[in-house]
Write a structure and sequence with these properties.
Layout (H helix, E strand, L loop, with lengths): L1 E8 L3 H12 L4 E4 L10 E2 L9 E2 H14 L3 E3 L3 E6 L5 E5 L3 E9 L21 E2 L2 H4 L8 E4 L3 H10 L6 E4 L9 H9 L4 E2 L3 E5 L6 E4 L4 E3 L2 E4 L6 H8 L3 E2 L2 E2 L12 E3 L10 H31 L1
Parallel strand pairs: 1-2, 1-8, 2-5, 8-19, 9-16, 10-11, 10-16, 11-12
Antiparallel strand pairs: 3-4, 6-7, 7-8, 13-14, 14-15, 17-18
Helix pairs in contact: 1-2, 1-7, 4-5
Bound molecules: flavin-adenine dinucleotide.
Flavin-adenine dinucleotide (FAD) binds next to helix 1 and helix 7.
Length: 305
């Protein structure tokens, strides 16, 4: 498995700014993520130092070139899940590979995808969940639905098989974006994929059924939301990070409550602007460098004993 010092998830202003600091400090730095939303022909004229309007696309290209100049490795790949192994390192599973990192900076921006199920909130904690590794255990042997159209949903559905054989994916009316490899594994494991849209949920004490727009009712005691790509909130659930709504809580140094995990930019939810993302990215980079150095010292001390 590939191993890096610092894995940065997000190729927007926060992630690239972090990478400039970490790579320049000699840390093996990998940035995962693809073009952020702002990297289009949008005119940015409130970012420091540019008297001429610059497009979001050019600003991001410049940030990437600068991070790469200091040795950061930048790849367009999506992270599906993260866990911590018994050495305290983090392992990120992506669409293409698994990567081990001593520290992680979350710079995934904000996710605005909502499933559009009318009474979803009524069943949160009563069957509706956002985290297979947290709540999959409670669904042993029960029928469950995974709501999502892409590889993130496919990966969550496959993970649920360790608890129940009765798993169905519902794309929530969206066009399927599941790769060939995942489609093959879903078929192999007999996980059906419905392309309908769930409109409402029902059940007396907990979730019992989901009703599709077509009127069809599906038995489901669990419903896992996994729409679009995994977001910082999804990683927060599985890593036990403290959140405030959909945002990650950090201290002034961008440290989360889990040592080794830092967060910066829109996913922290302060002032959703490029300048703030860049500033928080720098702080997160600095804090991650300190963490990696401290971890190296601890590991050397252990070896010496
Ligand atoms: C159209 C538009 C115009 C804007 N105009 C301005 C402006 O004029 N001035 C201004 O200051 N701000 C502007 N903003 C806001 C600004 O773009 C954001 O505040 C800023 O981009 C936040 O940076 P970020 O790095 O936190 O997140 P983002 O820029 O959103 O980057 C998030 C990154 O995370 C990656 N990612 C997410 N999930 C995963 C995953 N599971 N695996 C791997 N990677 C993942 C994405 O691919 C992306 O690379 C604008 C935003 C938009 C959308």
């Amino acid at each position: 498995m590939e191993s890096v010092d610092i894995l940065i998830i997000g190729q927007g202003p926060a992630g690239l700014s972090s990478a400039i600091y970490t790579a320049r400090a000699g840390m093996r730095t990998l940035i995962l993520g693809c073009a952020p939303k702002v990297a289009g022909d949008y005119e940015i004229d409130n970012y420091f130092g540019f008297t001429e309007t610059i497009t979001g696309k050019e600003l991001i290209e410049r940030g990437k070139a600068q991070a790469a100049k200091f040795g950061a490795d930048i790849r367009c790949d999506r992270v599906l899940g993260i866990h911590q192994n018994d050495t305290g390192a983090f392992v990120a599973k992506t669409e293409d590979e698994e990567i081990e990192a001593a520290s992680i900076i979350l710079a995934t921006g904000v996710s605005r995808i909502r499933p559009g199920i009318s009474n979803l909130g009524d069943y949160e904690g009563k069957g509706v969940s956002y985290c297979v590794s947290c709540d999959g255990f409670f669904m042993r042997g029960k029928p469950v639905l995974v709501v999502g159209e892409g590889n993130f949903a496919a990966n969550q559905a496959l993970e649920l098989l360790q608890y129940t054989p009765n798993v169905t994916i519902c794309s929530q009316g969206k066009e399927l974006a599941i790769s060939e490899d995942f489609l093959y594994r879903l078929e192999e494991n007999k996980i059906p994929v419905l392309e309908g849209k769930i409109v409402t949920l029902a059940g007396e004490i907990g979730l019992e059924t989901a009703q599709l727009e077509s009127g069809q009712q599906i038995d489901a005691q669990g419903l896992f939301i996994a729409m679009g790509q995994a977001s910082s909130s999804d990683f927060a659930y599985s890593l036990g990070l403290i959140r405030n709504g959909q945002f990650i809580e950090t201290d002034r140094e961008q440290r989360t409550n889990v040592p080794g995990i830092f967060a910066a930019g829109d996913c922290v939810g302060r002032f959703l602007q490029i300048s703030v993302a860049v500033g928080e990215g720098a702080l997160a980079g600095r804090a991650a460098i300190s963490h990696v150095k401290e971890r190296r010292r601890t590991l050397l001390d252990k070896e010496a004993k």
